[in-house]
Amino acid sequence: MFNNPPTMSPEEIAAALARGEIVLIDVREPMEYAAERIHGALLYPLSTFDPAELPHDERRPIVFHCGSGKRSATAFTAAAKIGVPLRAHMRGGIGAWKMAGLPTVTIDPASGAVRDPR
Hints:
Layout: E1 7-8, H1 10-18, E2 23-26, H2 30-35, E3 36-37, E4 42-43, E5 62-65, H3 70-81, E6 86-90, H4 93-99, E7 105-107, E8 114-115
Parallel strand pairs: 1-6, 2-4, 2-5, 5-6
Antiparallel strand pairs: 3-7, 7-8
């Protein structure tokens, strides 16, 4: 169905998130998400991924992201097959997000405190 799912840049996704226009789904694994994540992203790991369990909101389509863009493209294709309202997946994953200078939520390894620059 989607050999090349549509993509969005990290900047486009950040703007859409700020406007409340999308639901951002992180398909990385729980340890990756715990170490660093995008504020507002929901975790649905690809290893246990069931597109039928995704939140459905016709007003806010889903955008997927992962570490580099490969897993999010896989998730997009699986969700598209069952008709989930989708918009795109993030080109370059969280790595591209960080390269664009966009903030992430992290854990301070010394104290365990959550660092959320938002």
